[in-house]
Amino acid sequence: xxxxxxxxxxxxxxxxxxxxxxxxxxxxxxxxxxxxxxxxxxxxxxxxxxxxxxxxxxxxxxxxxxxxxxxxxxxxxxxxxxxxxxxxxxxxxxxxxxxxxxxxxxxxxxxxxxxxxxxxxxxxxxxxxxxxxxxxxxxxxxxxxxxxxxxxxxxxxxxxxxxxxxxxxxxxxxxxxxxxxxxxxxxxxxxxxxxxxxxxxxxxxxxxxxxxxxxxxxxxxxxxxxxxxxxxxxxxxxxxxxxxxxxxxxxxxxxxxxxxxxxxxxxxxxxxxxxxxxxxxxxxxxxxxxxxxxxxxxxxxxxxxxxxxxxxxxxxxxxxxxxxxxxxxxxxxxxxxxxxxxx
Length: 343
Hints:
By secondary structure, the chain is an alpha/beta fold. 44% of the residues lie in helices and 13% in strands.
C-alpha cells in the first residue's frame, strides 16, 4: 500500500509497467529484492509484481531501507516535471477548465513554452488533457447513476456542453452507454475478403468494429445490451466502402469511425492514422510522436487496443529491428496488408 498517497496500487503498477512519465514525482516504485527505488518511468527491466512496494516519495523509500536508482535518479525531479505535475493537480482539482495562461503563469513559463513542456510529458496539451479528464469522469459516473448528475459532476456546465464536447468521442448517447448499449442499434456483417472473413459493425455515427476471423459473439461481448441487426442500404454502402479500403488500400480517411479509448489511446490512434500508406513506423517512433518517447510499451498496448483494424492502421507499426511484431489477427494478415500497401 502506498504511504501518504491516494493513488491505488493497481494504478501505480500500471503506470510503472507503461513507464508513464506523467506519474514521475507522484510516487516511488521500490523493489524489495534489489533494495532500489525508482521513478515510475525508469527504463530498467520490470521486476515481478510481488517484489514491488510503492512509496509516496524517496524519503519514505529510504526509511524502508531502499536506495535510489542510479539509472533514473528518482530524487532529481526537474523543474519542468514539477510544473507539469502541479498543473495536472490543478486541472484535476478545478471544477471548470483552466486557462493555459493561468497554468503557465503559475509555473513561471510563457504560455507557448508551457504548452510544449506539458505536451512533451503527457502527450496532450493542457486543454486536451482537461477535456479528456472530464470525459473520463463522466464515463465513470455514467456507469454508476443518473446521466444528468454525471454530466454536472464531471464539470460540464450543462448537457449541451457535454454533448458538444463528446460528440464522436463517446459514440453512443450517455444514457445508452450507462445501460451497456441499451437502445442503440449496431448493424453488422461478416464478409469474405482476400484476407479471410472480416467482421464490420457500425453505429449511426460510424464503424465501431473491424476485425478478422470473428463472429457476432465479439460484438455481443462488447455491447451486451445493444440491438445487433443486419444492416440496411446505408450500411451496405458503408460496408462496400470498407471492403474496398481493405482490398485496394488508399485514402480511407473519409470513412466515419465511432471509437472510444483513453486519452493516451486516442492520441496513439490519431498518430496511426497519420502514417501514409506504404510506410511503417516503429513502436518507439509511435511513442515519440505522441510526446512520450519512453512509453514504448504503453504505445504498443494502445496499438493493440485498436478495435477498428485497417481503418486505424495499427498494422503499420513494426519492431525497431524490422520485425513485424505482433498483430491481433495473425502475422500473415499483417504481412499481406503491408504488401498490398507497398504496391
